[in-house]
Amino acid sequence: MAYDRALAAIRLDMPDRIPHTEYCSHWGLVRRLTGLNPAIPEERDEAWRRFYVAAGYDFLWLNNDGPVPWDKRGRTTDMGHAEWLEDASDRREIVPSPFRTVEDVLAFDAAEEYGLPDSASLVEHFRTAHATAQADNPSMLVPGGYYKTIVSGCIQAFGWEMFLSAVGADPQGFDRVLEGIFRLTEHHLRAWAKTGIPAFISHDDMVWSQGAIFRPAWYREHIFPRYRRLWSILHDAGIPVLFCSDGDFTEFVDDLADAGADGFIFEPLTSLEYVAEKYGDTKVIIGNADTRILTFGGREDIRREVKRCIDRGRDCPGFFMAVGNHMPPNIPLDSALYYLDCVREMSAR
Q1: 142 and 60 in contact (C-beta within 8 Å)?
Q2: pTM
Q3: How far apart are CA 167 and CA 66, in angstroms?
Q4: 3-state class of 146 per DSSP?
Q5: β-strand 211-212 against 207-208: which pairing, if any?
Q6: Which letter does DSSP use for residue 267 in this model?
Q7: Radius of gyration over alpha carbons of the chain, in Å?
Q8: What is the DSSP letter of 190?
């Protein structure tokens, strides 16, 4: 069963097949594999349920930051969103930052502005959300998860320009701002820790495609110690933590492992070779085929890319096969189908 295979991998008890997961928004692929159309509201949920099974998923993504979005509770920024979905319904226009000066940012306290929801109600919200997702997809393992951990929380609140300006103006003074976001995240993770989830995705886009946004020493002083404090909450409840970030965090893999990450979910920019070489026996590894190869490459390129990942992860007990940077609808349908065929073919150990 897919659930057992995923759980074995998370526990580093090597399953007989390499488990598989994806973050996918390719409606054409869903239609081809299920006969249902996720663009039709009445068919959407069943279309995705059938797709996960047809595509051979063992593990599903889940992130939930609580019942009330930040923009309903206080000041936030929206940097907009490009068109990924085939009907462009995900497009959002830019909402300028409400933080006009560096001083506005440095005076911000996220826990105070957004509030700390009632703990018991928050536990029930997370427990219900997870139980519903798991019941809807009974054959697969569904984790818990939180998206706006620290750096992503700053991006959400301030937008890039004011975030970077405030850290640059007062990198030490910004620590007080980070502490407010930390306290908000901590409150939510304490609730998640009481839900009995089998694993947890801690998401934080803390790097760019070229690596660190800030000096590495800044992360080591202000970010990673906070990760350690947050993840210890889940570890105390017996819940493994899978760290997820866009971009290239190769230079910080050791720091993240030292802070307590039990696994890594990453794009092809982060080195699978480094992670597998150093942590292949001791960490969960999810990724890292490159969607650009599926989009622009031919069959030989796609097969070579799947083989690269599986050859490197085959002897790692916690390895999951996945496209590391999303399967969007502009991947040619035949290429997406061929990718799934290659994964099925090569995943046996």
Answers
A1: yes
A2: 0.96
A3: 27
A4: strand
A5: antiparallel
A6: -
A7: 20
A8: H
pLDDT at 88: 65
Residue pair 311/274 in contact (Cβ under 8 Å)? The answer is no
Instruction: Give the ranges where 237-322 is alpha helix by DSSP (H).
Output: 253-259, 272-279, 291-296, 299-313
DSSP 3-state of 75 = coil
Q: How far is CA 18 from the centre of its chain?
A: 20
| Distance of alpha carbon 264 from alpha carbon 320, whole angstroms | 10
81 has pLDDT over 90: no
Sequence letter at residue 298: G
pLDDT of residue 93: 80
| Burial call 261-288: b when 16+ CB within 10 Å, e when fewer | bbbbbbbbbbbbeebbeebbeebbbbbb
State residue 115 phi and psi, 5-degree precision: 85, 155
Q: Are 288 and 272 in contact (CB under 8 A)?
A: yes
Distances (CA, A) of 105 to 111, 207, 245: 14, 20, 24
The token pair at 225 is: 């110690």
- How far apart CA 276 and CA 207 sit, in angstroms, is 20
Q: In angstroms, rounded to a whole number, what is the distance separating the alpha carbons of residues 262 and 277?
A: 15
Phi/psi at 201 (5° precision) = -100, 115
Cα 332 from chain centre: 24
Distances 273 to 103, 258, 340 between C-alpha atoms, Å: 43, 19, 22
Domains belonging to the chain, first-starting first, are 2-346 (3.20.20.210)
56 exposure class (CB count in 10 Å sphere: 0-12, 13-18, 19+): middle
pLDDT at 74 > cutoff 80:
yes
Q: Each residue of 15-38: pLDDT tens digit?
A: 999 999 999 999 999 999 999 999
